[in-house]
Amino acid sequence: MTQGHADQTHVLSSQRRGARGKPQEIAAPSPTAGSLGLREAALRRRRVLWGLAALTLLVVGAASLSGRYPAPYWMPPRLLLEDPLARQIFFNLRLPRILAALLLGMTLAGAGTVFQMIFRNPLVEPGFLGVSQGAAFGAALSIVAWNAGSTGIQASAAAFGFLGLLLSDRLARRIRYGGWTLRLVLAGIAVSALFSAGVGLLKYVADPLTQLPDLVFWMMGALWGVTWSKALSILPVTVIALLFLLLMRWRLNVLALDEATAFSLGASPARERMALLLAAVAAVSAVVSISGVVGWIGLIVPHLARRLLGADAQTALPGALLIGGAFAVLCDTLARSLLAGEIPLGILASLIGAAIFIVLMLAQPRTAMLSG
Amino acid sequence: MTPISITLSDIHFRYDGREVAVFEGLSLEIPPGSITAILGPNGAGKSTLLYLILGLLAPAQGKVLLAQRPQHSYSRRELGQLVGLVAQEEVIPFNFTAQEYVLLGRAPYLNLLETPRPQDLEIAHHALARVGAADMASRPLQMLSGGERQLIVLARALAQEPRVLLLDEPTAHLDLGNKGRVLELVRQQAEAGATVIFTTHEPDLVGTLADNVVLMRAGQALAAGPLDEVFTGENLSRTYNVPVHVLQVEGKRFIVT
User: Fold this and answer.
1) Does residue A181 lie in a domain region?
2) Residue A8: what pLDDT?
3) B195 and B3 Cβ atoms separated by less than 8 Å
4) Taking residues B76-85, what's their average pLDDT?
């Protein structure tokens, strides 16, 4: 029985069995009710997106007039005409910093949405796969080993961010059990832990007077000292990467399906996911290189966006970009305005992000984590 | 829709890192527009066979032909337009609405950067109506019952307009009503010219739906052919290693163990 059939081709019948009778019509409950609801939902989503865009603009506008000059919290717009120092602060300090915060928030939120969808796990964020920890290690290494300036820190952060991804990918390929996603997640956790240990070691050996404060501030995340040249240096890569993610926004839905189903729909899941990952990591490495490690935005904003706009990335992704941008600008404005000294952005973002997360969980206890 | 044939010739396949091969020289000829059931115990290689036809798995040796053309000569997109899949208990991690999910069936007709066009929305809506779920269009999937969700998954495959429809245990865990619905839709798909292949653990389903049966055990096709010839007590007994009788009452087949 075993080999006997091996070389025998089983030819099946092409005869349709007996009369099956007329295919029975399946009752379709009035299509109008459903389609009306759909049109309303689509309209509502478009309105929410426009609302978010307006909100983001409003936050950016308000942020540009907030700060500690001339007095805490608010600068009347007329000062821009009367006071050269106000103009100086507005154009050379605040605007580049707001641009950087906007890019940071959009990138983390966009990358977070992409990571969550392609890893089919709503609890994933860009800090995953060793990217953030790798970038942090790269930055710390350049500070401690070479006393690097900002360009050196950026380059080293980006290089090690990619290295983190590469190591996670290589390690995942060698793990011999579990599905691809599980293996990548496990590998990412391991690689992140290695890099965190490395950062700890660097902190330990860093010069406590010259290097450690820099290092610590960077680890806490901050946009302090962002200039036009810094902000513009990350502009091309982040804009191109975000545009790519935006263009792929509907396709993301297909890639969020399981491997076999995505494949059956004509996708090349591994290759397309890798392209999206590379774009997301490139953008994250770039922003992290000037901001340091800022957590929570990449995790919490995609949830908020899905809550407001539904799971379909066609609208959820643009929504996440807008919310992320507004949220980061808001946090950074508070970071530089609240106290006479600067509060690290990473700390504020975690504080506010975690608070929102708790509210979200309480609002819908059973399904908050998986909510669409 | 012109029906297409599926040919597997001398397929050898083993999973990476496994000692035991799943297939060693399997050959099958599945005629265009037929309904073929793949029946066999757990681990017989039923799903593996579907995934080989889908192209997700590649045989180490041997060929899969779709409409007499080697499967690998089709582009990913062409293959997506040709072969649809209803996977076993598909897990959908995000809370898409039924409409959003069914629309994903149009992916093979869109390029990477495109979003669905109006005609895609129409086709998706039509597919939902066909499974009797038009009124569920804006409902989130997590609010549907298991049976309703399976109908939506089927609607997604219908929206894909595939000429080969692969179903991996399509009626597992369905109640009688939803089961009847799924069977009727599969039948209609075959009437419309699709070549349908499904795996199942339910011999009764084979008797009511299939034109052809492939009985599998440990990676071998023990017997394959038209229902009347192959679906016998003797063959089923060999497949499952327990005595099985097939009773025919008023043209319907009943399985007795």
Assistant:
1) yes
2) 64
3) yes
4) 96
Q: Does residue A2 register a pLDDT over 80? A: no
Whether residue B249 is predicted with pLDDT greater than 50 in this model: the reply is yes
- By CA distance, what is A367's nearest residue in B? B142
Q: Is A311 on the interface with B (CB under 8 A)?
A: yes
User: The complex's ipTM?
Assistant: 0.94
Q: What's A208's domain CATH number? A: 1.10.3470.10
State how far residue B195 is from chain A, nearest Cα, in angstroms. 10
- Reported pTM: 0.88
Domains of chain B in start order, with CATH, are: 6-256 (3.40.50.300)
A-chain CB neighbours of B9 within 8 Å are 9
CA distance B208 to B192: 18
* Separation of alpha carbons B12 and B21, rounded Å: 8
SS3 state of residue B257: coil
Interface check for A367 against chain B (CB to CB < 8 A): the answer is yes
Is A223 part of a structural domain of the chain? yes
Instruction: Give the whole-number percent of chain B exceeding pLDDT 70.
Output: 100
- Residue scoring higher pLDDT (A233 or A371): A233
8 Å CB contact of B93 and A310: no
* Residues in B touching A265 (Cβ below 8 Å): 80, 104-105, 107-108, 160
pLDDT digits (tens, 9 = 90+) for B203-243: 888 888 999 999 998 878 888 889 888 888 888 888 888 88
Residue in B31, B56, B129 closest to A28 by CB: B129
CA-based nearest distance A328→chain B, Å: 25
Domain-located, residue A36:
no
Give the DSSP H or E segment for B52. helix B46-54
Q: Span A46-51, mean pLDDT?
A: 96
* B132 → closest Cβ in A29, A176, A367: A29
What's the sign of the alpha-carbon dihedral B22, B49, B77, A261? negative
Please calculate the CA angle A143-A146-A149 and round it to the nearest 5 degrees.
60
pLDDT beyond 60 at A372: no
Residue range of the domain that includes A168: 72-370
pLDDT of residue A158: 80
Domain count, chain A: 1
Looking at residue B135, what is its pLDDT? 92
For residue A28, pLDDT over 60 is answered with no
A274 touches chain B (CB under 8 A): no
